[in-house]
Structures are given as structure tokens and as C-alpha cells.
Amino acid sequence: MFDTKFAINSFPKILSVAPETIILSIIATIIGLILAIFIVIVRERKIRVLEPIAAVYVSFIRGTPIIVQLYVVYYGLPQLLVALRNMGLNTTTNGLPVMLIAILAYSFNASANISESIRSAYHSVNYQQYEAAVTVGMKPTRAMTRIVIPQLITNLIPNFSNLFLDLIKDTAIVYNIGIVEIMAKANILSSLGFKYVETYLDALIIYIIICWIFAKLFQLLEVFSRKRVSHTQEFI
Length: 236
Description:
The N and C termini lie far apart (65 Å). Helix 2 (18-44) crosses helix 5 and helix 6 packs antiparallel against helix 7. By secondary structure, this protein is mostly helical. It has helices spanning 4-15, 18-44, 50-62, 66-86, 98-123, 127-135, 140-170, 182-193, 196-235. It is 81% helix and 0% strand.
């Protein structure tokens, strides 16, 4: 039988670790966005040597499950630090924070996916607007920042929102490396009373609430961005 009292009592305990999930997702997304911008510049400008490396990196990340990437970083990073120490560099593998490992793994994952979304948004912008602005005397840099980039950001927001929400849900596996977040707390509580449905339902509700809040924030951001782009185009 479903134990309503146990579910109600467990809910605030699971909710108390929600910040771990949110913080991990936000930090990984920010770092991933920075890396993604670098990847896009390399691939769009077709920089020698770096361009094929970036293409292989994106293909590898997008073609493998996030849990595999998490384990590769979790087990591979300490070994890399040992190798660097053997080469004479001052590195240490003692007490490597698991949160740092998770942030790195999720940042790498986010960077590949976001870079493809940025490239898609960039190519969806009508480049003739840029050329027309330069033709009438606007500096290329100004034309890029006033015309191309605002439209790129507007086109990027829907996909970026989906990627961020997917990242939040993907953090449900970080308990495998010892981080106590929503799913880890649900597993701990369920094992105490052998009431799995109750705690997993609590976790489901919390994920829904978190994703709904961020989805609404991104929707508001998209509306604001589209209004600003329309105003800018009218002004130009």
C-alpha cells in the first residue's frame, strides 16, 4: 500500500538537496557555454589543426551516454594527474572533490551540445542583413553585435532551454560517484523503509517543479529577446 505519510515526511528531506542539482546544472552549463563558444569559433573559422579536433570531440560527446562520460572523467582524471606528476609537474590526486569531477563531466557534455545549437542558430540568421548593414557604412563589428548576435541569441534560447532542462534531469546519475542529490536522497530514504514508490514520486514531483520554473524563465527570456530584436530592427 502507498504510504502517504511517509511520502509527505520524505518530501522536504529530498527537497533539501535540490540545490546540489541546481548548482551543478548551472555551473556546468556556464562552463559548457564558454567552451561551446570557443568550439564554434574554431569550427566556423576552420582553424587548422583545432577544427578537426573540435569536430571529433563534439562527435564523441554527442555519440556517448552521459554516464559513460561521467565514469571516464571520474576514473580517468586521477590517472591523468598521476601521469602529469610522473612527468615532473606538481599535481596531486589526494582528495579530488567528486563535485568537481561531476562539473567537469557535465561541462564537457554541455559544451558539445550547446556548440551545435549555437551553430544552428548562427546559420539561421539571414546573413544578407549583415551585408546590407556593412554596405551602408556600419562597421562589421557593430553590425555583428547589433544585428547578428541578438538574432542568434533569440534563435538559440529554445534549444538552450531544452539542453539545460535535459542536463538537470541527467544529474540524476551523479549519485553513482557519491554525490547526494535528489535521486541519491530518494534512494537513501527508500532503503530505510523499503518504500520506493513514495520517495521516487517525491523526486519526480521535485524534478517537475524545478524544470517548470526554469522553463518559464526561459520562455520569458525568449519573449523579451524577440521584442528587443524587433525593436532594434525597427530602429535600424
